[in-house]
Write a structure and sequence with these properties.
The chain has 271 residues and is of the alpha+beta class. The chain is built from 6 helices and 10 strands. The chain has an 8-stranded antiparallel β-sheet with strand order 2-3-4-5-1-6-10-9. Strands 7-8 form a two-stranded antiparallel ribbon.
Length: 271
């Protein structure tokens, strides 16, 4: 991908918009109403807006961009959202809108230069903790969008983002929109080679998931879904030891967890 980009000589600015969007789901067994409330409170604290801000700022650094503005919010009773405006090009201080906070007050590492916002360059994250009232299954969902323009590509941040969360199911979308022109005036609708999102995920990570692709190459739309292969029950019990459960209970809980995962992975009610 990088090698191909270096060979391109463009006429004017690279107008392509590259968007990486995906949902990450973490599934847990919390039997009692109190355990379910405690689970929601736990993930809400673990992934509050401050931590999510740090994750997005690291992503910004990985794609070679600069923070222009940060907006974050924790919600009652649960959930959080963070939005970053980012840029890849330097602009003088007098061109930057005064409403932008430039990341000040968010414990970021100061940069030598200030940067201006380029349209459609932003990162967002939203969290959605919830639980099923009947089968004791609790789910934590994270929605992440990394949208960039110009030469910046969000694909190389995938491994970091996957590793930043406990991920049982993932649905990942990547799309390149718009066009740019080379020096001869020819329109280019994509500026790098890609056959699958999986090509940008570490092999060791892929080994632990079942993955399928649904790609529309003519439209530069790529879609990958991933489902964890093995369930180690202890990792899915909230405030409970697996040895406290009978073999029958273990089998039942494991079955309920797997059914929940398969339905989320499939995007439909099956059972």
């Amino acid at each position: 991908m990088i090698g191909l980009e270096k060979k391109l000589t463009l006429y004017g600015f690279n107008n392509l918009t590259k968007t990486l969007s995906f949902n990450i789901y973490d599934v847990c067994y919390a039997k009692s109403e109190k355990e379910q409330r405690d689970y929601i409170a736990y993930v809400d604290e673990q992934y509050n807006s401050d931590r999510l801000t740090k994750i997005l700022c690291e992503v910004t650094s990985m794609i070679g961009a600069h923070v222009l503005n940060i907006s974050k919010q924790d919600y009652d009773p649960q959930g959080a959202s963070v939005t970053l405006l980012v840029t890849e090009e330097f602009m003088s201080d007098d061109l930057i809108n005064g409403s932008c906070n430039r990341g000040k007050g968010f414990a970021l590492t100061p940069k030598d230069t200030l940067a201006g916002h380029l349209d459609k360059s932003h990162l967002t994250v939203h969290t959605y903790p919830e639980y099923h009232p009947d089968n004791s299954i609790a789910t934590f969902r994270v929605d992440i969008d990394v949208s960039t323009c110009g030469k910046i590509s969000p694909l190389k941040t995938l491994d970091y983002l996957i590793g930043s969360f406990d991920s049982d199911i993932m649905t990942i979308d990547y799309r390149v929109r718009g066009f740019t022109r080379d020096v001869n005036g020819k329109k280019l609708y994509i500026d790098h080679d890609i056959t699958s999102i999986q090509d940008y995920i570490d092999d060791k990570t892929l080994e632990t998931y079942d993955a399928i692709d649904v790609n529309v190459y003519q439209a530069n739309i790529f879609h990958t879904k991933m489902l964890i292969k093995e369930i180690e029950l202890q990792n899915y019990l909230f405030n409970k030891d697996v040895l406290e459960l009978s073999p029958k209970q273990r089998l039942s809980i494991t079955s309920n967890l797997r059914r929940e995962m398969i339905e989320i992975f499939s995007g439909m009610n099956i059972y």
